[in-house]
Design a protein that fits this description.
The protein contains 14 helices and 15 strands. With about 425 residues, it is α/β, with parallel strands linked by helices. Bound molecules: zinc ion.
């Protein structure tokens, strides 16, 4: 297994090293479940899936842990506004999120820990940080002292957010209970309250993986301060690197602009469906942009992806269903592309080269496409030829007879009738080819 990945911490491409005798661990910062995920969020999770599937394709066993942030300022405010308990409110959005992942053919993570189920570990970590002097209590909570962690900033090259002062950059590990938190509170030796967002990930990593994760992932906006803070907390307790490799996926622009509620360009998979696109059209489009480039989503680009995916599906269904062997030279090329920092745009281009390659037999093309699709996740194996109802079959037979008799007026009338019923016909050397519109 040789996968080269850009490592944010090393600021360079580096091979991912396979751990001996255990699965490779990936920790993915998961969603905060207070609203539908937008397509920019979902891009990150498709990238995680491509990473996981690539490692598995290369023969590496993987354990991917993705957390669910079900307690923070936004979830508490959302539950209050909806008049629901925090659990009822967050579970609903968690379900929507998992349904989105399934629609995008994202493989289910090995574990999906919820923050609220790991609070005892968060409390234990904070006690250790208080004991070793890295944390201190304040009026409204317990804070991490950045001045006492000298390597703070090593991941991002930053130590404070814009406009922040030296004194205010410390971050909350624990927030003491206040009125608007309602029922959401846990008892702790240092005072009743709730965890800060950053300590949640440090605790879930400790509980599910251990002090060191092989690959830690997230979107670029998490590098600072979230991942920097995770490092500060975990490394202050365990004196071991939090992650060997850091992978960050780039942002998504919509029509050249940052997504924002005020611009009305925050789209979800539901918005895509309402405009007649399937989630897999979106997955196909994502494959054509490298994960480290800021992709620009437009409806025209998505329509292009839909057309391309439709052509791919048709071409796949047209291939003989005989059992062939995947072509080794194409497999080698595919392997080289995906193991070179997940170069999926090249891998997708290879599909079209393969389909145009007349030196390959259809059964070999089919077997090779199925092999690639273990990573691409476009659902080729599940495709079924359309079922043509008997009355349409009869019209096809009549049309074939009319064409043979060179009665083109009747043939055209029959074509119109078949198309009105929701099908398209293409006349090929092998006869009429019918597809569902
Ligand atoms: Zn996190």
């Amino acid at each position: 297994m040789v996968l080269k990945l850009y490592n944010t911490l090393a600021r360079d491409l580096a091979p991912v090293t396979a751990p001996p005798e255990r699965p490779l661990s990936i920790y993915a910062c998961g969603p905060t479940v207070y609203d539908y995920a937008h397509i920019g969020n979902l891009r990150t999770f498709v990238t995680n899936d491509l990473l996981r599937r690539t490692l598995e394709y290369l023969g590496q066993e993987v354990e991917l842990v993705m957390n669910i942030t079900d307690v923070d300022d936004k979830t508490i405010a959302g539950a209050r506004a909806a008049g629901e308990t925090l659990t009822d409110f967050t579970r609903r959005y968690e379900d929507y999120f998992l349904a989105d992942l399934a629609a995008l053919n994202v493989k289910t993570p090995a574990a999906k820990p919820r923050a609220t189920e790991h609070v005892p570990t968060m409390i234990a970590l904070i006690e250790k940080l208080l004991a070793n002097g890295r944390a201190y209590p304040a009026d409204d909570g317990v804070y991490f002292s950045i001045a006492r962690f000298p390597s703070y900033g090593k991941l991002s090259g930053r130590t404070e957010t814009e406009g922040e002062t030296e004194a205010s950059r410390d971050f909350a590990l624990w927030k003491f209970w206040k009125e608007e938190d309602g029922e959401t509170a846990w008892e702790a030796p240092f005072g009743k309250g709730r965890p800060g967002w950053h300590i949640e990930c440090s605790a879930m990593i400790a509980d599910l993986i251990g002090p060191t994760v092989d690959i830690h992932t997230g979107a670029t906006d998490l590098i600072f301060p979230h991942h920097e803070n995770e490092i500060a907390q975990s490394e202050s307790v365990y004196a071991a690197p939090l992650a060997r490799h850091w992978l960050h996926g780039a942002f998504l622009l919509v029509e050249g602009q940052k997504m924002s509620k005020s611009l009305g360009n925050v789209f979800t998979l539901r918005d895509l469906e309402n405009r007649g696109f399937s989630s897999l059209d979106y997955r196909y489009w994502l494959l054509t942009a490298h994960y480290r480039t800021q992709a620009n989503f437009t409806w025209e680009a998505l329509a292009g992806a839909q057309t391309a995916r439709g052509r791919l599906n048709d071409a796949f269904l047209d291939l003989d269903s005989g059992i062939g062997q995947a072509d080794e030279s194409y497999r080698a090329k595919f392997h080289d592309f995906i193991s070179d920092d997940l170069n999926f745009p090249q891998a997708v281009a290879l599909i079209w080269q393969l389909l145009a390659d007349s030196s390959l037999t259809p059964d070999v093309q089919r077997a090779t496409l199925l092999d690639f699709d273990r990573v691409l996740g476009l659902g080729l194996a599940e495709l079924k030829p359309p079922t043509i109802p008997p009355e349409i079959q009869n019209l096809l037979v009549e049309r074939e007879a009319a064409r043979k008799a060179r009665d083109f007026a009747t043939a055209d009338a029959l074509r119109a009738q078949i198309e009105t019923a929701g099908f398209t016909i293409e006349d090929t050397e092998k006869g009429q080819k019918i597809r569902v519109k």
